[in-house]
Amino acid sequence: MSTQAPARQPAVLRPVFPRRPSRNALVRAAARHALLLAVLFVILYPLLWMVGASFRPENQAFGTLGLWPSGFTLDNYREGWSYGTLNFSRYFLNSLVIAVLCIVGNVVSCSLAAYAFARLEFPFKRALFALVLATLLLPYQVTIVPQYVLFNELAWINTIMPLTVPKFLATDAFFVFLMVQFIRTLPRELDEAARLDGCGHLGIFRRVILPLSLPAIGTTAMFTFIRTWDDFLGPLLYLNDPERWTVTLGLNGFLDNTGVSSFGPLFAMATVAIAPIVGFFLVSQRLLIEGVATSGLK
Fold first, then answer.
1. Considering only CA atoms, which of 46, 26, 169 is closest in space to residue 110?
2. Any idea what the CATH number is for the domain that residue 186 is in?
3. pTM listed for this prediction
4. 46 lies in a domain?
5. In whole angstroms, how far apart are CA 260 and each of 32, 70, 257?
6. Cβ 252 vs Cβ 245: under 8 Å
7. 13 Cα distance to chain centroid
8. Does residue 238 sit within a domain?
């Protein structure tokens, strides 16, 4: 006598509704966001106050801690743009030329050096890479005098050469390290496939590595732009002619050692000076986040 197993009843599918967060979770989330907003306000307060002060009359620049100006005026911007013997647009042009050259130099030289350290095999490779990273521990103030003597012997003082030429020699070890870490994440099978197609090292670098390294290149470009645009000591050392001054030196011209300083135009031009940095960051923030997240620095 054979017995049959009872037929299995089909499982009843019940709708799954997302669980509503508890009241304590909502309170904690609200408190966390409120704390973050408070910290953000404290961090941004000096910047917001400077922007507000740029629209106040000059005699009321330090009259209040409020952010919104009581007496709105654009005189600070008109006076600051034409302050001194030169128009402020000249300083912006000088800074832009130097920043663009530094970006091109860092991207080209650091990417080539990073490709060599990440993909090529040559004697003393590890020692040389360690030596490059060791330069990160060397304070900039230690090399000021030797560099100034060298550039003076080359007759480069009062030119943009000391500020731009070193960038074409892969002197920024941080960007070399950044790109090395990124290139190491790329599979070597891509190099082998390109080599089968007849590409040499230059072809692999140009057709495979560079297109895939856009996040690291964008990060390098953004940090280079910020460093160059905000640099004050370098232009102060090497640029003596006011016609070659950068934005930072132009801002310093509003401060007078005798005590007569134009703070209203200074705040106005400082507000204008940070606009390119904010704009560059907003444009390249996606590449910055992706470059940092995928280059081993996370």
1. 169
2. 1.10.3720.10
3. 0.81
4. no
5. 46, 24, 7
6. no
7. 53
8. yes
* Domains of the chain: total: 1
Amino acid at 26: L
| Domain assignment of residue 151, given as a range | 103-270+284-293
Site of tokens 């309170």: 27
C-alpha dist (Å) from residue 145 to 137, 155, 159: 18, 15, 17
CA 56 centroid distance within chain: 31
What is the token pair recorded at 67? 């952010």
Q: By three-state DSSP, how is residue 154 classified?
A: coil
Tokens matching residue 110: 């650091």
pLDDT per residue rounded down to tens, the chain (298 residues) = 455 555 565 555 565 555 666 778 888 888 999 999 999 999 988 888 888 888 888 777 676 766 776 777 888 888 888 876 667 888 999 999 999 999 999 999 999 999 999 998 889 999 999 999 898 888 888 889 999 999 999 999 999 999 999 999 998 999 999 999 889 888 888 888 888 888 888 899 988 898 888 888 988 998 999 999 999 999 999 998 888 999 998 888 777 655 556 788 888 888 889 988 888 888 777 766 665 555 444 4
> Residue 137 falls within a domain, yes or no?
yes
Q: Is 275 contained in some domain?
A: no
Fill in the amino acid letter for 160.
I
